[in-house]
Write a structure and sequence with these properties.
By secondary structure, the chain is of the alpha+beta class. 49% of the residues lie in helices and 20% in strands. It has a five-stranded antiparallel β-sheet. The radius of gyration is 25 Å and the shape is elongated.
Length: 174
């Protein structure tokens, strides 16, 4: 009888330890997943609640001094219900959290009033836009604007690839 009780206690202890290990693993995964506030490339996709415009920064457009503080991408996220825009946030994405922090600190020193609602979130500087920046806009208008911007971006990238192919062909002929 004593052996049977010891075996049952051993199984119970192993079961409890396993359950605790599973809880700890889930907690660690949750902490790691939310370290950047859950922000990742999947968040910056339009869906049933938001429209997203992503603008990639062209490093050729800025001088070297400004380059340090330039985000690699800027995501403008419009949240909506029905045809009403309910919010707007701008996410400036940097290569890493350290670069974002340097840029954030520089922005805070500038005392720009429009940045009063800015916060640092991992490798992103998140600016909550005031209502007057999106009031009067409808979700359908925003969607059309984003589609137009993406069409322009695709047209420009198509032109660039054709130019490269033409230059490569000309070089090969010589």
């Amino acid at each position: 009888m004593a052996n049977r009780a010891k075996k049952n206690n051993k199984k119970l202890i192993i079961g409890i330890c396993s359950a605790i290990a599973v809880v700890v693993i889930i907690a660690v995964i949750a902490i790691v997943a939310t370290r950047n506030g859950g922000l990742n490339d999947n968040y910056f996709k339009s869906d049933d609640t938001k429209y997203v415009l992503t603008i990639e920064t062209d490093s050729l457009e800025t001088d070297d001094d400004a380059q340090e503080y330039m985000p690699i991408k800027t995501h403008i996220v419009y949240t909506y219900e029905g045809d009403n825009i309910t919010g707007m946030k701008t996410y400036a994405e940097y290569p890493d959290a350290e670069t974002a922090k340097k840029s954030f600190d520089a922005l805070k020193e500038s005392d720009d009033e429009s940045l009063k609602d800015a916060e640092l979130n991992g490798k992103y500087i998140v600016i909550t836009n005031s209502e007057d920046q999106y009031e009067g806009m409808t979700a359908s208008e925003v969607k059309q604007q984003i589609e137009f911007m993406e069409m322009l971006k695709n047209t420009n990238s198509d032109d660039g690839s054709e130019t490269e192919e033409t230059n490569e062909t000309e070089s090969a002929e010589e």
